[in-house]
């Protein structure tokens, strides 16, 4: 707790905010990519400490939020099959598909279990050799190595009743898509420190150079974020567009090379649809040919399951930074944590949930 307190010092936070206010001269729009960063910004009121010239735009870095509706529908369809145990992280259970969610499927009798790791799901498969066990594998580069390890161990140990429904996505292609989107206002990025812990920083310099945007890798504590914003504003005011690592206590330029080698063995890059955003080229992973027999989408023949977004929910605009959650007409009305229309209200990292629990709700 003492170590964490070092990054939550209120006096230092005020000094950093004052320094940002001192040096800023022009309006700037900065996107924090990660949903965990969004929650830290909103929960601690950091975005409200900043001078009016600095606008924080909430990005698509919540893996639960960007998992497509059809993936949820496929997971639900698999879970309802006789003899299947579907394992998932807990925050996926209430994410709405087109017709219900995994929690409702569990209530109807499907064997849906919450696990804390794909290795837990693999252990379930080992304990129940007479059942098909499927792990719903979601997340960015941060959680993908654990999914890859589960697949590798399942193959090496001959656990034939285990498979993965893979929906992993990648951050750099999302940044590319945001910068190329019509009406984009983002002028700089705070990159997610946990992603860079795995992948390093080497993918970001070409993005920064091509789009002339600073990219600063930050952590998730209040002082981490304020330091990252300060570094970003310094670059913007100077007309620079470089990659800076403000999270050096956890991130190196090369990242975790062992994890990267495992990812390269188990997965291959594919175009991937993002909920509310659309398909982003080369933005996801699927199981490579040597591991294709562990692909639940193929094993249960659910690749053809498609679904449409709710016409009322505007979470896609929130994820792209085009709309703040409290500006959505459904926010706090049709859409609340008890009756969510989109994943951004369900997820522990969703921007809509962050606004709701911070009390930033529309006045009646």
Overview of the structural elements:
- It is built from 18 helices and 11 strands.
- It folds into 3 domains: 2-62 and 171-245, Rossmann fold; 65-169 and 255-299, HypD, alpha/beta domain 2 (Rossmann fold, 3-Layer(aba) Sandwich), CATH 3.40.50; 315-357, no CATH class.
- The chain has a 5-stranded parallel β-sheet, with helices on both faces. A 4-stranded parallel β-sheet has the order 4-3-5-6, with helices on both faces. A two-stranded antiparallel sheet has the order 10-11.
- The model has no long low-confidence stretch (mean pLDDT 92).
- Helix content is 41%, strand content 19%.
- Helix 9 links the parallel strand 5 (132-139) and strand 6 (162-168).
- The protein starts with a helix and ends in a 7-residue tail after the last helix.
- Helix 8 (118-127) packs parallel to helix 9 (144-157) and helix 9 packs across helix 14 (257-266).
- By secondary structure, the protein is an alpha/beta fold.
- It has helices spanning 2-5, 10-23, 35-43, 46-49, 63-66, 69-79, 102-107, 118-127, 144-157, 171-180, 193-199, 204-211, 222-238, 257-266, 296-299, 315-319, 343-346, 351-357; strands at residues 28-34, 54-61, 84-88, 111-114, 132-139, 162-168, 188-192, 215-218, 243-245, 267-274, 278-287.
- The chain is globular and about 65 Å long.
Provide the descriptors you would attach to this structure in a database record.
364 residues; alpha/beta; Rossmann fold; 18 helices; 41% helix; globular
């Amino acid at each position: 707790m003492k170590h964490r307190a070092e990054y939550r010092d209120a006096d230092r936070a005020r000094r950093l905010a004052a320094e940002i206010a001192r040096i800023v001269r022009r309006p700037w729009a900065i996107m924090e990519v990660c949903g965990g960063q969004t929650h830290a910004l909103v929960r601690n009121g950091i975005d409200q400490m900043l001078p009016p010239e600095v606008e924080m735009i909430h990005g698509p870095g919540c893996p639960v939020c960007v998992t497509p509706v059809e993936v949820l529908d496929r997971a639900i369809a698999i879970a309802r099959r006789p003899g299947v145990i579907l394992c998932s992280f807990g925050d996926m259970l209430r994410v709405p598909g087109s017709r219900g969610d995994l929690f409702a499927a569990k209530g109807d009798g499907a064997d849906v279990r919450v696990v804390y790791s794909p290795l837990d799901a693999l252990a379930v498969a080992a304990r129940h050799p007479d059942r098909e066990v499927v792990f719903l594998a979601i997340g960015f580069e941060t959680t993908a190595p654990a999914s890859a390890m589960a697949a590798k161990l399942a193959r090496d140990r001959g656990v034939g009743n285990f498979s993965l429904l893979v929906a992993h996505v990648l951050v750099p292609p999302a940044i590319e898509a945001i910068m190329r989107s019509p009406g984009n206002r983002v002028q700089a990025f705070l990159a997610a420190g946990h992603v860079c812990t795995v992948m390093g920083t080497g993918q970001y310099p070409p993005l920064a150079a091509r789009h002339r945007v600073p990219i600063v890798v930050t952590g998730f504590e209040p002082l981490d974020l304020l330091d990252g914003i300060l570094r970003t504003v310094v670059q913007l005011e100077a007309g620079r567009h470089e990659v800076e690592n403000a999270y050096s206590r956890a991130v190196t330029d090369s990242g975790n090379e062992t994890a990267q080698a495992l990812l390269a063995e188990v997965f291959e890059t594919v175009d991937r649809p993002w909920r509310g955003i659309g398909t982003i080229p080369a933005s996801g992973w699927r199981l490579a040919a040597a591991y294709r027999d562990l692909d639940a989408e193929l094993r249960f023949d659910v690749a053809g399951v498609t679904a449409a977004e709710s016409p009322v929910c505007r979470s896609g605009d929130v994820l792209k930074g085009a709309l703040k959650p409290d500006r959505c007409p459904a926010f706090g009305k049709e859409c609340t944590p008890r009756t969510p229309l989109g994943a951004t209200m369900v997820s522990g990292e969703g921007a809509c949930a962050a606004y709701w629990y911070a009390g930033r709700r529309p006045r009646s």
